[in-house]
């Protein structure tokens, strides 16, 4: 074999090794009071420019690998050069692998699972050359509720967030209380909803992240009423009203999807709500090879010609490639 060909083949092999194919576990990231696992997908480890970070929190009965495959975040990270952090629950903490969003000892600032996720973010910022102004969080179901806990306890960290089929921060303080909340049988005033957030950072005067909400109107596990609860809670903390300033029916030509914007006085969207008719407790996917396509078919997903992960990345401002 000619030396030039050998060199070229060696170059290709080495280049492929530099591109991570899946998330890897990080074992020692902090004190880890919540006893969670940490996985990171860093598609180009040798990249020297600062990169955005997306934290993805799985739902019950899922793990880091499954939520990565289900959502398609890794594909978008590889194509747009950002890092994805996947916290993972342990069976010993919750037999259903749910993040314990209904336990005060796990969702208050400096405590439990919430603190473990905070430690993961700090570790990632130091070790993966993260742009501190471009940190985002997203979660599914129980992961959505834990995402709300992170926003409530550490609002200064995040630029934006998205929650899929979740509920508000501290809407329940126990397992059976959580079941009542999920079924939509609890009622709250907006003052009650905002008070529990303000208690986490009494002196905080800074901005709160923009929040994107996805919820199926036929969700039989987390009643759609919870979407209204999240809107009320976040509108209260953003000092805006709960009447949408912009409504797009049949969003992107899809009859079942309605997009609503709740803006501040300057016209900036602070809450974006995707109401989805004829959707239960599932993630919207659109499998395919195109940039705007992705997600994995399964019991936790449904096809409607709309890749919700891609749309979230677009709302976050993460896309560098255009379809």
TrEMBL record:
Write down what this protein is called.
Feruloyl esterase
- Does this entry carry the keyword Kinase? no
* Region (Disordered) location: 287-306
SUPFAM superfamilies recorded for this chain? alpha/beta-Hydrolases
Gene3D superfamilies associated with the record:
alpha/beta hydrolase
**Keywords of this entry:** Hydrolase, Signal
GO MF entries: hydrolase activity
UniProt feature, compositional bias: Basic and acidic residues = 293-306
**Any Gene Ontology CC annotation:** extracellular region
């Amino acid at each position: 074999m000619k030396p030039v060909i050998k060199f070229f083949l060696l170059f290709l092999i080495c280049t492929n090794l530099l591109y991570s194919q899946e998330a890897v576990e990080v074992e020692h990231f902090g004190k880890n009071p919540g006893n969670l696992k940490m996985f990171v997908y860093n598609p180009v480890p040798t990249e020297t420019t600062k990169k955005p970070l997306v934290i993805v929190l799985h739902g019950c009965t899922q793990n880091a690998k499954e939520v990565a495959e289900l959502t398609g975040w890794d594909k978008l990270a590889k194509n747009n050069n950002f890092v994805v952090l996947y916290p993972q629950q342990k069976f010993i903490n919750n037999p259903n692998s749910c993040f314990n969003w209904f336990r005060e000892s796990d969702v208050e600032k400096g405590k439990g699972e919430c603190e473990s996720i905070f430690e993961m973010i700090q570790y990632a910022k130091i070790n993966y050359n993260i742009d501190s102004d471009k940190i985002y969080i997203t979660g599914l179901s129980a992961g959505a509720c834990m995402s709300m806990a992170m926003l409530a306890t550490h609002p200064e960290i995040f630029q934006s967030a998205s929650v899929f089929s979740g509920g508000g921060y501290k809407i329940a303080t126990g397992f059976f209380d959580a079941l009542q909340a999920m079924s939509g049988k609890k009622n709250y005033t907006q003052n009650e909803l905002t008070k529990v957030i303000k208690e986490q950072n009494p002196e905080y005067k800074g901005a709160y992240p923009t929040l994107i909400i996805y919820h199926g109107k036929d969700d039989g596990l987390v009643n759609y009423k919870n979407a209204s609860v999240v809107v009320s809670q976040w509108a209260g903390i953003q000092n805006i009203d709960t009447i949408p300033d912009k409504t797009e029916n049949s969003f992107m030509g899809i009859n079942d999807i309605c997009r609503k914007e709740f803006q501040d006085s300057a016209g900036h969207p602070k809450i974006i709500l995707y109401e989805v008719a004829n959707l239960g407790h599932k993630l919207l996917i659109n499998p395919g090879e195109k940039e705007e396509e992705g997600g994995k078919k399964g019991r936790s997903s449904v096809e409607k010609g709309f890749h919700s992960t891609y749309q979230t990345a677009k709302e976050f401002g993460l896309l560098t490639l255009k379809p």
